[in-house]
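Sequence in, structure out. First:
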Amino acid sequence: MNLHEWEQGGDYLELNDGRVFFRVAGEGEPLLLLHGFPTSSWDFQAIWPTLTKRYRVITYDKLGFGFSDKPRQGDYTIGAHLQRTWAVLSALGITKVRILAHDVGNTITQAWLARQLEGPVPVQLTRVCLLNGGLFPEAHRMRPLQRLLLTPLGPWVARLSSAKRFGKGMAEVFGPNTQPTPQELSDYWTLMSRQQGQHLLHKHIQYIRERQRQRTRWVGALQHTLVPLSLIDGIHDPVSGAHMVARFRELLPGRPVTELPCGHFPQVEMPEQVLQALTQHWAD
């Protein structure tokens, strides 16, 4: 499915701070697919057709990403992303949902689980499956570009972004045997650079600081939630691969884990294996 087809199959929802792109298809129990940094809901296009045969599947581009608006002064904190996620689901009449989350989508999910532990939430999580992401700050290995974006030079680094640099950085976190095609890298850049979204990279990356500040609360949410929770991880990911799996097993013993021989984007690199693992994790 190409980018045009992906957009044509979706719609737009006007929120208080901008217009967001979303897609809904299928029938049955609601399932939310929540993308990460620095990509978009299109990450899930390979697993979308199969999942929509089993669930009512919802995904959307977070504000600042993909086909959604990219306001320069937008609020890109985890709390703001969570509120917008609830707004999208509430607009669709959804009050309970399963979730498959990736990267910063995991962090939003952790904040969601924390809020759910603390009291009522607008939309209740019923099951959680996480893909690669920085679940534990102490096990998250930042890339050089991420470190630069977090420095005072961040705004300048973001403005110097180009298709070539962006593509190189993306390819480096894929597995050695599951590399993206030139067309895929071009599509990633097309989505990122809409409305000059690359100029916001230094703002988006602040979620790493939030993870560090909220470590006790958000990791605690994973440890104490009663929501069934599992992990599917591409172990060749230099950011959150095998070392993140080891920490997951240490802090969350007994939770289901599937390791795949790929990089940071299992849903892109090994979609069939992700679907098989998800079926196993949610076998009941």
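Second:
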Amino acid sequence: MAYALEIKDVHKTFNSGTINEKIALDGVNLNLEEGDFVTIIGGNGAGKSTTLNAVAGVWPIDKGSIIIGGQDVTALPEHKRAKFLGRVFQDPMTGTAATMSIEENMAIAARRGKRRTLKWGVTKAEREQFKEMLKTLDLGLEDRLTSKVGLLSGGQRQAVTLLMASLQKPNLLLLDEHTAALDPKTAAKVLALSDKIIEENNLTAMMVTHNMKDAIAHGNRLIMMHEGKVIYDVRGEEKKNLKVSDLLAKFEEVSGGEFANDRMMLS
């Protein structure tokens, strides 16, 4: 069976051989099936975002392999992996061009990986398509196609980035704490939108979050990381019935220590 994503024995150490040496990933193994929506939790420095960056090819890994949709991408640089991936970052300012309009940003996303021609303007057909897509966000943005993205609020911007990331139905959608910079109400809206986009497009997705409640409420599978390893992997009914206290207990059992990430405990 071909998996949507295979992470095989991936290791990554930063500043190797120096006083600042940090083992970030310590033999991570993870397979995602088509349509899996996996939430990833863990304390600070557990390897959550590092795992997403390894998949995206932000830097080379030291050992192991990464296979997306049956294709080994381990040796491919970040820009060559872009055609397989959609990404939404923690900072609402990343992932869009602030000085360009909403429709221009969406057009760039729609044409990613396709042959470029000298004709640049946004076509009438594209404009109609973008309008329809923006309508589904329910944020009134369909009437603001020519507004510069830099003028949008953080939540509006993340919503547009989500649409852009999913426009080409990527093999894998990576959400890296994409609601962390938003207020709770806006975060809830962006999460609901993420669920909708993933479901409607039948995408395979990984979402890093520091919020245990969100990790339980979203997706069909949850993994917990600690010290660069996957220490817990739960799915389906068992995941649905989890409580935050279960996750804390599991963490203490596997790691032999208290869960000491205030940011996660408070959220």
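Remark: Residues 5-266 form a domain with the Rossmann fold fold (CATH 3.40.50.300).
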